[in-house]
Amino acid sequence: MAGFYSDNAMLLPAGSDFIQGRQAIEAYWQEAVDMGISRIKIDLMELEQHGDSATEVSRYTMFDAEESILDQGKGIMIWKYDGNAWKMHRDIWTSNSAY
């Protein structure tokens, strides 16, 4: 999963400080898998390209192994083109659930 992120990517999840770099991002997502998230469905709402950057607005649904919904929400992703591929550069999301 971390390979889809840029070298200096950042996650900005709710309830957490910035998570920076591929190693920290890989650890974050491994912890999510260990907690029971088996799949995340992304529904793209909007995508705008600006040169070597693009901004995505989306909705997400997180599922467990039995396909039960664990969480739903929305997010914004900033993508960067590194000359070879588009990489996730900034990733922020928030749940629709009241905490």
Automatic annotation (TrEMBL):
* Protein name listed in UniProt: DUF4440 domain-containing protein
Q: Where is the signal peptide?
A: none
At the highest ranks, the source species' classification is: Bacteria, Pseudomonadati, Pseudomonadota, Gammaproteobacteria, Chromatiales
Task: State which residue ranges cross the membrane.
Answer: none
**Domain DUF4440: where?**
2-88
Q: Which InterPro entries match?
A: DUF4440, NTF2-like_dom_sf
